[in-house]
């Protein structure tokens, strides 16, 4: 059996970054920038006022006090967005709004709070030093300066900075497109009448939602236990998806394992036993002309979910050219004892109480038991060489998103 | 000036939960369940095998050893999804796949690994105790049992459990629809030719991306400094949006503050000074026939961003009937000194180094300086009564999403 880290390394060696594309800023959200983005204009692009007030020459107001205000005629009004040229004459002032361009000749802004707010003539009761309440051209970002480096994940503030710097598009490796394919004759649509032997499909919903939670775009599919149908689905979807994820059809049963049967003789997908529980049987490789990476996850929903967190999510990031740090582990005290198979790392479903520093394993640790998974906020990680831990022992815990 | 917590309390007293709607499971992702969901069938709905192997009567294999295997004829094959009734006769076995229904009369499954894998006749080299490798009907969730309680946020595992329990739809308070409206004559589309006095709009992109990052659905709008146009936009958008967010037009400049002018005499929107920097000027209330909550955020992008994190995101959760815990603060050692205005809580942009336990304030702390925001991974919180902190002091730090 392969250790978890060794299997992940195999996956990441194969999951290469996709080609970047030019997208509008909103579509580029969640993408990874593929080339350094520089400012197409200085930020700000002109000297402007940081407050509502009066643009002045500082020398004209140096003597202002509350007892003896300086009175200046208000020669003009400059709202934000005013694009006409303004020039300040000595001994006058201009009423100016936040963000409005500073008139030529002004070197300070007196905030409206230091004045009587006059319209034609203003009484100024406090001096403003040169530069007061002025944002200088380029004091945020100089023209041509690097704003967002290649490799950055584009969240709200990076998108906003690109916009402010004049980019309406960005060259990115976008949110990965992931096609999820649940396999099995037993699967039917949730809520449809059930015949004994059938179950309502949950894996396609589970994995598609996990893809979206991880920042990807998911397409949800379901295929019967027919190897030709699986091959056809993989062929078709590999042309458009950045990543393929099947569930089911990879256990030990031979001819009934549809995914294994569909990939029989396909040298570029390797089936592995990974030293973990749940999720021991795994498969990964590339399929189709585009050599699209493919995960063949086990069919038990808890196995599929844990496999997603450990392997699929890092591979999604890798397709964006982004390294995902391993999920952080934090210590918590077990409230009850747990058992774990020898030679396999267990990921037990539990409820972490941050405040108390404790974690309580849930009843129902079977890999088919979704009920416990839906109550869990954490996975309790029991190392390969440990077969039991007692109440009061400290365990490593991985928080769930 | 109002403390941050007092203002948030005002907001949350007004932001009431929206009416629940019935949505398909995929659309319901990220929604908050409005009514307890119970299992429409037991989970699993029939006894089934947890492994690939042979369904047997345990008594028939009790003597099996590697040296002296028990041989049984293989009377049938039961793949997963087989809906025909099977009955096991004493002294025979059935080849059975993971997830396939257990034949009547069988009380254990011998894993294929304990056999020679025979097709017509199988050699079994290890006994299986009664119940071995069998998942009993209802051992995950009993029929009618509560699966997901009202108030739960629907992530991948909750969606999957609803699907497994036969729900094709869910009654939820869905991801909130948030209309973002940037105001200002100075705003133009990023990349368009700039006339001095104009800037490329970044706020609409910033806030829309923040809404999506927080789990909402965003519409992006831009309106000129015309109070009638602002009133018209608020009227129209309040009919469809769950939350409205404007930026700009609320400073001290009087007639030029378009949002204040548009809402003049509108008793249900209150303008406040909140004891924080950036983000002191705030406004909140309800508008339109639907009494849609409205935030009027300041126009400086860093102010708008900090306001979003502190006030808009909790209000989005409140619209879903969900209480959002305050952002957790963690201690970190300042690498350089910082200053903060008296009577106001500062949220300084910084780079938190988790491993080192340090935080470095970024150059460029102006509320218009997006460059620093895009480099920040944390906000350094300086309390109201503190006006400076030195290198080596421990500060409270809020991680950014």
Structural account:
Two copies of one chain form a homodimer. Chain A is of the alpha/beta class and 401 residues long. The first copy, chain A, folds into four domains: 4-18 and 176-319, MoaB/Mog-like domain (Molybdenum Cofactor Biosythetic Enzyme, Chain A), CATH 3.40.980; 21-43 and 139-172, Molybdopterin biosynthesis moea protein, domain 2 (Alpha-Beta Complex), CATH 3.90.105; 48-135, Molybdopterin biosynthesis moea protein, domain 3 (Molybdopterin biosynthesis moeA protein, domain 3), CATH 2.170.190; 329-399, Beta-clip. Chain A is built from eight helices and 28 strands. Chain A has helices spanning 4-14, 25-28, 156-164, 203-213, 227-238, 258-262, 301-319, 370-375; strands at residues 21-24, 32-33, 37-38, 48-49, 53-56, 70-78, 93-96, 108-111, 121-124, 134-135, 146-148, 169-173, 177-183, 187-188, 199-200, 217-223, 243-247, 269-273, 276-277, 281-287, 292-297, 329-334, 338-339, 345-353, 358-361, 378-382, 388-389, 394-399. In chain A, the strands form eight sheets. A six-stranded mixed sheet of chain A has the order 16-13-17-21-20-18, with helices on both faces. In chain A, helix 1 crosses helix 7. The longest helix of chain A has 19 residues, at 301-319. The model of chain A has no long low-confidence stretch (mean pLDDT 96). Chains A and B meet through helix 3, strand 15, helix 4 and helix 8 of A and helix 3, strand 15, helix 4 and helix 8 of B.
């Amino acid at each position: 059996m392969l250790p978890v880290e060794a299997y992940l390394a195999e996956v990441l060696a194969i999951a290469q970054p996709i080609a970047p594309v030019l997208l509008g800023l909103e579509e580029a959200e969640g993408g990874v920038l593929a080339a350094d983005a520089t400012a197409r204009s200085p930020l700000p692009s002109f000297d402007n006022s940081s407050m509502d007030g009066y643009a002045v020459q500082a020398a004209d107001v140096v003597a202002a006090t509350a007892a003896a205000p300086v009175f200046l005629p208000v020669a003009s009004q400059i709202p934000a967005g005013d694009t006409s040229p303004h020039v300040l004459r000595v001994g006058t002032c201009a009423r100016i709004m936040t963000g409005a361009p500073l008139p030529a000749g002004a070197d300070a802004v007196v905030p409206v709070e230091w004045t009587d707010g006059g319209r034609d003539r203003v009484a100024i009761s406090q001096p403003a030093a040169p530069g007061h309440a002025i944002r200088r051209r380029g004091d945020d970002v100089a023209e041509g300066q690097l704003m967002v480096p290649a490799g950055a994940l584009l969240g709200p503030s990076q998108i906003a900075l690109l916009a402010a710097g004049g980019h309406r598009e960005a060259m990115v490796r976008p949110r990965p497109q992931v096609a999820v394919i649940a396999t099995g004759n037993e699967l039917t649509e949730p809520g449809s009448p059930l015949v004994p032997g059938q179950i309502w499909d949950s894996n396609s919903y589970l994995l598609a939602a996990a893809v979206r939670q991880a920042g990807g775009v998911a397409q949800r599919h379901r295929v019967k236990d027919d190897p030709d149908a699986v091959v056809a689905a993989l062929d078709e979807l590999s042309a458009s998806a950045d990543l393929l994820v099947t569930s089911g059809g990879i256990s030990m049963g031979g001819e009934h394992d549809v995914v294994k049967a569909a990939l029989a003789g396909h040298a570029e997908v390797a089936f592995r036993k990974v030293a973990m529980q749940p999720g021991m049987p795994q498969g990964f490789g590339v399929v189709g002309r585009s050599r699209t990476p493919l995960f063949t996850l086990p069919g038990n929903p808890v196995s599929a979910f844990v496999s997603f967190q450990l392997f699929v999510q890092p591979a999604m990031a890798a397709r964006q050219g982004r390294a995902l740090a391993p999920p952080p582990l934090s210590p918590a005290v077990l409230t009850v004892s747990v058992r774990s198979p020898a030679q396999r790392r267990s990921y037990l479903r539990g409820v972490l109480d941050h405040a108390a520093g404790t974690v309580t394993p849930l009843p129902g640790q079977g890999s088919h038991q979704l009920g416990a998974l839906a109550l869990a906020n954490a996975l309790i990680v029991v190392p390969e060489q440990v077969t039991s831990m007692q109440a009061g022992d400290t365990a490593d815990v991985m928080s769930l998103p």
